[in-house]
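During the second half of the funding period, the structural biology subgroup turned its attention to how the target accommodates small molecules. The most pressing case was guanosine-5'-monophosphate, which had performed well in the primary screen but for which no bound structure existed. We therefore specified the complex as follows and requested a full 3D prediction, including the ligand pose.
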Amino acid sequence: MADCLFSKLIVGEIPSKKIYEDEKVFVFQDINPQAPVHFLIIPREHIVGLKEATAKDAEILGYCQLVAAKLGREYKIEEGYRTVYNVGPKSGQSVFHLHLHLIGGRDMKWPPG
Ligand code: 5GP
């Protein structure tokens, strides 16, 4: 996807602080972190967002959650973290390449704003 910010980030065209990568996903530090740990887990394949995902994306959706759990262990935030997809403009979704937020390392309130 030529015009996609996160696709450019995956190939290094735009710099980011890489946390983890493998053949399926790329994980980097959010530029505007909302907690001590705030990573974005993105599939290498361009998927616009959760509501645009289809049955063929089921495996990568689950895989992103498992990568979040692995990083939650590694970064020692298992006392409490969130994995979040913002979906659609009213949720605050601002980038249209599927990204799972991993947020933790501080106390959190419920419901979120
Ligand atoms: P959304 O609001 O779409 O759920 O999340 C997009 C996230 O991407 C935001 O938390 C925002 O701070 C982050 N972000 C936007 N542009 C960049 C960028 O160029 N680099 C990094 N590392 N994060 C970005």
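Two results from this model are relevant to the next phase. The first strand starts at residue 18 and ends at 21. DSSP finds two helices and five strands in the chain.
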